[in-house]
Automatic annotation (TrEMBL):
Locations listed in the record: Cell membrane
InterPro entries recorded: GT87 (IPR018584)
Bilayer topology term: Multi-pass membrane protein
Protein name as it appears in the record: Hypothetical membrane protein
Chief location: membrane
Length: 445
């Protein structure tokens, strides 16, 4: 019986993911229609988005970025002196902009935009579920049967970028008939595509390049520098090839998306440790902004450097560079110190809970903190708008979420750098026989 379940686990994961996505859509659709303004905005969205916690960026951005006018992104866009985007420019990398445009083509209001965007995003989640089941076995339930997929599956355009990150790991792990260099190059192309959807997969290129540089070379006394540079070059070439047409056709609109992000403040909408931890201790918001602009990138880069260095130390002790664990730790550093930590970013992290052996209890605690922020912050906005004192209620829940996630990221940063890679102990797939690092099966939950 168990053997049959294990054999059919990828299919089971896909079915469960489909069911969770249906719930995800129904949850967000509570904010959609049936009464619309002349611009296609749902009356329910403005009334209930915070009160019923059915808000989504998909519905919100139907207006304000010329998506409702079916303008192809970036080409004729730009940014005003006060930081407002116009002419089809969106605040995301170019491929996310194209996905938004595709979802809008058959749409005449924000409810239809939500529906068609959900149809567009669903295959990416189903493919991700299939790969995670192949790699992580029953642990795939963390992706397909926990609240984040239901809460955030159609909150924003996260599912395609999660797919590219998981697909890169899947290729490196399972395509054993290819050389390590070839696997690394293909994975780098996938990570480059991911960077053109949302930026975070780009940070995984460095540990991947170090993995290709070192894998199998320690005993022979040399490194595969050509392979490492090929990995980096493949990622850079992919990003350049995807961005070049947009930059050439509409440089100002393309550049505006980067300027928008650089100008964004760590304010009440960003759910960051900076807003909730640093701002209350500052008398001058201008000084606060300056400190955030200095500290945020400095601490992110420091966390990256420490993770890469620990990975190098692990390589010297055990002969294989733990690129998946280092990537996961780098993501923790990014999420912790970046000035924006949106609730849907939980979808970025969950695949690493599946692929790396960390205690279930800590995963559960992190997911509870994520639920607190995912619900609490919108109820907090509702209370503020309705004139209700949020102190001790929604504000407390929000802060539990903010600081619970922050504490979890610190802990997972350390654990990921020691955690064994699940597929190395999973006999359902073809794999390398060398251990990824020293955190052995005896430490597994």
């Amino acid at each position: 019986m168990m053997t049959a379940v294990r054999r059919h686990l990828p299919l089971i994961a896909v079915v469960l993911a489909a069911f969770s996505l249906l719930l995800a859509y129904l949850n967000k659709a509570r904010c959609a229609g049936p009464v619309f303004s002349e611009f296609g905005r749902s009356e329910n969205f403005d009334l209930y988005k915070n009160q019923l916690v059915c808000y989504s960026d998909i519905q919100l951005l139907w207006l304000g970025r010329d998506i409702d006018r079916h303008v192809f992104p970036f080409i004729e866009g730009g940014i005003t002196p006060d930081g407002r985007l116009f002419g089809g420019t969106v605040e995301y990398p170019v491929l996310s902009g194209v996905l938004m445009w595709l979802g809008a083509i058959p749409s005449s209001n924000d409810a239809e935009f939500l529906f068609y965007s959900a149809l567009l995003l669903t295959p990416f989640a189903l493919l991700t579920a299939w790969m995670l089941a192949k790699l992580g076995g029953h642990r795939v339930l963390l992706f397909v049967a926990t609240p984040p997929l239901i809460m955030y599956g159609f909150h924003n355009w996260e599912l395609p970028v999660v797919f590219t990150a998981v697909a890169a790991i899947y290729v490196v792990t399972t395509a054993q008939t290819w050389s390590i260099r070839t696997r690394g190059i293909v994975a780098a192309v996938l990570l480059g595509i991911g960077l053109c959807l949302k930026l975070y997969p780009g940070i995984f290129v460095l540990p991947l390049a170090l993995y290709v540089l070192t894998e199998g070379k320690k005993e022979r006394g040399h490194f595969d520098f050509r392979g490492a540079f090929s990995v980096a070059g493949a990622a850079v070439a992919t990003v350049a090839a995807i961005n070049a047409p947009f930059a050439i056709a509409g440089f100002e609109g393309w550049r505006a998306s980067f300027e928008f992000q650089s100008l964004r403040r760590a304010d009440i909408t960003t759910n960051s440790i900076w807003y909730w931890g640093l701002l209350p201790r500052m008398e001058d918001e201008t000084v606060y902004d300056a400190w955030v602009e200095l500290l945020s990138p400095a601490l992110i880069l420091t966390s990256f450097a420490v993770a890469v260095a620990v990975g190098w130390w692990t390589y010297h002790r055990h002969g294989t560079y733990p690129w998946v664990g280092v990537s996961a730790a780098m993501l923790c550093g990014f999420l912790l110190f970046h000035k924006v930590h949106s609730p849907q970013f939980a979808l970025w992290l969950i695949p690493f809970f599946i692929l790396l052996r960390v205690p279930w209890q800590l995963i559960g605690a992190y997911l509870l903190a994520d639920i607190a922020i995912g619900i609490g912050v919108f109820r907090y906005f509702y209370d503020l708008g309705a004139g209700i004192d949020p102190t001790g209620g929604s504000e407390l829940v929000t802060q539990v979420g903010v600081w619970g996630r922050a504490a979890g990221l610190v802990i997972f940063y350390a654990l990921f750098l020691r955690a064994s890679y699940v597929p190395d102990e999973n006999d359902t797939i073809t794999r390398d026989t060398s251990p990824v690092n020293a955190y052995t099966k005896t430490h597994s939950p």
